[in-house]
TrEMBL record:
InterPro entries found in the cross-reference section: Bact_TGase-like (IPR052901), Papain-like_cys_pep_sf (IPR038765), TgpA_N (IPR021878), Transglutaminase-like (IPR002931)
Residue runs in coiled coils: none
Annotated stretches, region: Disordered: 514-561
Record-annotated Transglutaminase-like domain positions: 449-516
Keyword tRNA-binding among record annotations: no
Protein's name in the database: Uncharacterized protein DUF4129
Spans through the membrane: 7-26, 32-51, 58-74, 115-133, 140-157, 163-180, 192-216, 565-590
Keywords, comma-separated and alphabetical: Membrane, Transmembrane, Transmembrane helix
Gene3D superfamilies, per database record: 3.10.620.30
Amino acid sequence: MRARVAAAAEVVLCLGTVAPGVLLYLDFFATAAYLAPVAVAASTAALAGVWRYGPWRTVGFAVTAFAVAVTWVYRDTTSYGLPTGDTAKAVVGGVASGWTSMLSVGLPADSEPDLVITPVLCTWCAVYAAVAIATRTRQALAPAVPGLIAFVVALLFSKGEPHLLLAAGFVLASLALVLLRSDRFDTAERSGGGLAFGVPVIVCVATLGAAVAWAVPVATGEDRFDPRTLRPPPVTLSTDLTPLARVKAQLREPAPRPLFDIEVDGAEQSLVRTSALDDYDGVTWSSDDPYLFAGTRLSANTAPAAVTVSARVRVEGLPGPFLPTFGRPVSLDVPDRGERRLAFNSRSGVLVCPEPSLRGLTYSFSADADVRDDSLAQSLPGPGSTDLPDDLPTELRQLAKDLTRDATTLYGKVTALERSLRRLPYDLAAAPGHSLARLKTMLVGEPGTSPGAYAEQHAAAFAVLARAIGVPSRVAVGYRLHDPTSGTYHVTSHDAHAWAEVMFADRGWVAFDPTDPTRTESTPPGNPDPAVIAGPAQPNPPTVDPRTTPTGGENGRPGGGWQGLIRATAVVTIGAVALAVSAAVGIACVKAVRSRRRRAAGGAAGVIAAWREILDRFAERGSWPPITSTPQEVAAQLDDEGLAAVAALVTVAIYAPHELDESAAARAWAVEAKYRRPSTPRGVIALVDPRPLLADRRETRQRQAALRALGTV
């Protein structure tokens, strides 16, 4: 019965070594729906691994169990629960290309069969291998290897984030499995002492390892190898013409051309973005972001102060591939997903459709839209590019400093730039382009030229000036929203527009429109004073004390430097003390349980138990007689009459044909009591001394080696 319980516990621990790898996919999938088919795969694999009724029947049962697991994944292709030809085709295609699908989809992904099949396959193989090894071999560590492989495979598909708890869970399950198998197959006395000592040690080791990894991360996981970098993105866009250059062409069309209808629920929006450009080479604003196929979940909410907006879009004449969105899209619903597959870039928040024609496309999305309010006055710059060409004219850099000289906050600086640029004249007939030379002409003027410009140059100028003072910014291209009809905006080509966006740490990208199409008056050419461009002084937003972002250590992460070293030292010290205390308590408990069991014996067994307790007292003093010494030889070395009497009783207990009475055991225990240390510091140390436990195991190994040498085992 005990063997069956131990075998069942090993199967459970085998599942425990694979479970952390399964849970890693929570970062990959948008929901936990994938866990159901994975649980079916793990259950069938465990049953197949335990099955041992001949090689052919075992293989047949394993194949059947695998078929059940993969059929469950593609159960939509079955007929009355039975697999069909479509099921077979789907399984073959999923097994062959499921892993490539996982590398070409945006995260978090939907629990689609072609994406779930790879975790199911890895889980089934890992569980089957672990259980089969555990039930067919005596190797202590081997059953944990399949779980380790499954964990590494899952790391390749998951996000580049640390998973300390899951790693600690794998270590804990693996060590528990090794301990159980070592105790089960140990031919020594199976009193459970090994488990009682090992379990707290395992818990402490796993806890200490996780704490040390958290305090002193050798690798955070952010720079972990990503196999997606070896695979070209599934959606590539032509960069021959920047979307910014199409703004003027649309605005100059003779008649407005219907592009799309958008119905908005939530906060009122005045701009809808189609593309975002964050690379500037001095001539053109562009973007080379890769796009992955989108599921229903696009990105996590990283801007808690933003406002959630929902929208429904119906495309008419919008040229592809860029699609209208707000802020940072969070979720997406495409009714005809099977016919048209949309793609998304989570960094820029841009949604695209690689189809040649978008007419008739309908989709709904929700997004974290930016809202400009007074709380932005306390915001700091977020992560974003501030790169500019090396040949940036010094006049532009100085102009950016002059225009923002009186502002004390990030929001104050960017609103000052916005106000200044909105006071420049709007002229759709101005020369196209947004190169540095064109921007310099617009902002500081050249003899014989007009500073007139339109949205393309205004947005580009704002982004360049913002980056010149270290503010992360980009150019956004899209359309204006105005005059809704029954809550629906009808967007045409004459609504084309461009603006700039600034990255705030706690809000994400926030739009700033530096163009005023109603300001058509001209200004004389030349090099105006910055104060003239800035116009009358206007109050800045509420000012706050300048703040700096905590940098931490040399690597810029919080917790670095001396503070990180002190914290790491404290954690390691506390963990070491906890480990030592746990080990001491475990040793004392094991010794107490063993002593209690020995004292419960009577007669000859009680005499032998008392003798072994006496030997434990010798081990606590650093003395352990050789295994070849008889009890009389041990007593003779110490010249103790009481010990000699116990040695004689032990000899009688082992070899005499008659049973000793209870008084013999009592006399032996009385002698043992003399060798116990009193309640002194040395006595307390003796309680947690592990040498008696180690001596027992050493004696067992020596006895087994001697028996093997004699050929009796």
